[in-house]
Amino acid sequence: MPDSVAKKQESEPQDYKIKTVKCPKCGGKRLQITTETDTHVKTSGGGYSSTKGCLGWLVLGPFGLLCGNCGSKQKTSVDTTNKTYWVCSDCGNKFRNLEDWKNELEKEDTAMKASLCISVFALLGAAFFWVSHISFMGKLLLILAIVYVLMAFAQWNLLRKEKEEYQKLEHESTEA
Ligand SMILES: [Zn+2]
């Protein structure tokens, strides 16, 4: 008796997991997986972090180091990426593989949080210099904070739109 109960519990969630992927255009299920290597490097990733890192290093030693670290993390996430797509054998429609896309969205989410983190540190630095009556440094860090807040906002906005697209595709391309 306990054996059969355990087996049932094991098989049930598995059934839920297996979702059939179908073409969102024609509903066809004859799909082939294809991987594309995205070689275009976003200039905002590499160029941005290195200039900001240098600026941070000029203004403050430890803060600059922190900026550099966060920047390099961002750079690697934007480098060459492999994107997995499904290609429909019936109509030729190509659409993103959801698991792969989800991983990418998570990386973008981390990059956004890194930008927010830098802006918070820059703001704290700005406040510190302001209190110490070194307003020139305070202004520099304030500008840095504003740049990163704007960047984080842009990343958040993009991520929000992409998540909407993701959910739309998830709804259209999966069958329970
Ligand atoms: Zn199709």
Biggest sheet, strands in spatial order?
2-3-4
General shape: elongated
Binned, the helix content reads over 70%
**Sheet with the most strands, sense and barrel status:** 3 strands, antiparallel
Content of β-strand: 5-15%
Topology of helices and strands:
Blueprint: H1 2-17, E1 20-21, E2 31-38, H2 43-59, H3 61-78, E3 81-88, E4 94-96, H4 98-131, H5 135-173, E5 174-175
Antiparallel strand pairs: 1-5, 2-3, 3-4
This protein binds zinc ion.
The site of zinc ion (ZN) has 8 residues, from loops.
Fold and architecture overview:
The protein is an alpha+beta fold. It has one domain. The chain is built from five helices and five strands. It has helices at residues 2-17, 43-59, 61-78, 98-131, 135-173, and strands spanning 20-21, 31-38, 81-88, 94-96, 174-175. Strands 2-3-4 form a three-stranded antiparallel β-sheet. Helix 3 runs antiparallel to helix 4 and helix 4 runs antiparallel to helix 5. It is elongated and about 70 Å long. Mean pLDDT is 80; it is low at 1-17, 44-48 and 71-76. Zinc ion (ZN) binds next to loops. Zinc ion (ZN) is lined by residues 23, 25-26, 28, 88, 90-91, 93.
Short note summarizing the structure:
The protein is an alpha+beta fold.
What features would you highlight for this structure?
176 residues; alpha+beta; three-stranded antiparallel sheet; 5 helices; 70% helix; disordered N terminus; binds zinc ion
